[in-house]
Amino acid sequence: MDMGHIYRRAPLARAMALMACACLSACKDPVQTRREPAAETAARGLIAIRDAGCGSCHEIPGLDWPKGRLAPSLNGFDDVGLIAGQLPNRPEVLAAFIRNAPLVKPGSTMPPMPVTRQEARDIASYLYGIDHD
Amino acid sequence: MIDALWGWPPPVLDPAGPYAAKVTTLAWSLFALGVIVTLVVIAALWAAIKGPPRVQAMLGGERAIWIGGVAFPGVVLTALLIWGLTLTATLTDPIEGDEMRIRVTGEMWWFRVQYLGDQGRVIMEDANEIHIPVGRPVVLELESADVIHSFWVPHLSGKKDMIPGRRTLLLVEADRPGEFGGVCAEYCGAQHALMGFVAVAHEPAAWNDWRDARLARIAAADGPRGTDLDMARTAAAGDAARGRNLFMDVGCAACHRVAGTDANGLAGPDLTHVGSRRTLGAGILPNHLGTMMGWIGDSQSIKPGNRMPSYDMLSAGELEAIALWLEQQK
Ligand SMILES: [Cu+2]
């Protein structure tokens, strides 16, 4: 759970991550389309959100506790503009942001989170499934 | 997370040591007896309605009431009471000789942990986590700083109240390594439900290493060059060193102690080893940079009414620096 060591990687790593994002977004992901998140991945996503303690900073619909107020509420990504005000609103980008925000959005104040790639994809799927109204 | 109450198998039915095993045996025996009595009552009911007249007469007679309604429950319940009371008494028997002692104090709403040496002197301070060696009984001296709390690790032993002005004893022992959740089991105020801890059982050799590392860390911190050592340790990460200074400047040090620094506060949990804890906020959050920042910046949203103010006036960078430094305190 010690995140210190992967924090603030060299610029090379950052560029590689951005490239990886770009490659990923080039090919369509059949399971996680924007409008129909698979119920199963979304359910796993909520569990991952609870286990990672995202609620200590965010209020997240579907999570009873905790409801932190340090960071924006995560109420639905199906029809909002940019992720964190800067990044294109796509599942792969969201998943990458969740794992290591400062890497994909330099200067982001959200620290890297100890979630696996798969967990990050599940969480993204859950967040897209929340109706934004 | 390490949960004390939920999970499969349920922690109350999954003893990880001899003391918890006794409690589990008692619980299963009570359950089995309850099943037997229920079956006998159902059978008697059936016989009283549909059985042959001779049996009906017997069940309706006065003797059936004296035997089945007075003598049987009297004997069985008395026996159970004696068994239950002697069993719970053995969970608090002080053991003689080379016993290990840990003092755990309930505070609203967290647990202060002090490892005691030979003469009952405190040799190591910690909070919300107890580390014990496998295969060795440990005497817990339970106290309270405010209201009545109760100490309970279902995997390891029964419950024991923590009473202000009194010292109660509880024996725990683990027979396998692992991490076992614990909770406060006596309502103690608004955040009673968020008052937990973790008991970690190590193989004896691993436990010795763990203890030696901690004692070495404390000895280094207490020595004349302690502060220098500490600075050397944090100098590698510029941000963390900044976090250390912030910790002293914004008032954290008034409530928290970090061995080897000027932080000497006693109102909150000892943070000397906070970076190595499994959880934050008394067993309620996983422990990593993100939850550390969230707790410091806004503990009042996470655990409303807890006795640490939210530091929402700190910038994200400052929060991060403090959290980085604290995560290094292993
Ligand atoms: Cu309590």
Question: Which tags fit this structure?
Answer:
heterodimer; A: 133 residues; mainly alpha; Immunoglobulin-like; 5 helices; disordered N terminus; B: 330 residues; alpha+beta; five-stranded mixed β-sheet; 8 helices; 12 strands; binds copper (II) ion
Oligomer: heterodimer
Shape category of chain B: elongated
Question: What's the CATH architecture name of chain A?
Answer: Sandwich
Rg of chain A, Å, rounded:
14 Å
What does this structure look like?
The complex is a heterodimer of chains A (133) and B (330). Chain A is mostly helical and 133 residues long. Chain A has a single domain, classed as Immunoglobulin-like, CATH 2.60.40. Chain A is built from 5 helices and no strands. Chain A has helices spanning 11-26, 39-52, 91-99, 101-104, 117-129. By secondary structure, chain B is an alpha+beta fold. Chain B has 3 domains: 18-92; 100-202, Immunoglobulin-like; 223-327, Immunoglobulin-like (Sandwich). Chain B has helices spanning 18-50, 53-60, 62-90, 204-222, 226-235, 238-249, 289-302, 316-327, and strands spanning 100-107, 110-116, 122-127, 129-133, 138-144, 149-152, 160-162, 168-172, 178-184, 196-202, 279-280, 285-286. In chain B, the strands form 3 sheets. A 5-stranded mixed sheet of chain B has the order 3-2-1-5-8. A 5-stranded mixed sheet of chain B has the order 4-10-9-6-7. In chain B, helix 1 (18-50) packs antiparallel against helix 3, helix 4 packs across helix 5 and helix 7 crosses helix 8 (316-327). The longest helix of chain B has 33 residues, at 18-50. Chain B is elongated and about 90 Å long. Mean pLDDT of chain B is 91; it is low at 225-236. The chains are: A mainly alpha (133), B alpha+beta (330). The interface between A and B is medium-sized, with 23 and 26 residues. The complex binds copper (II) ion.
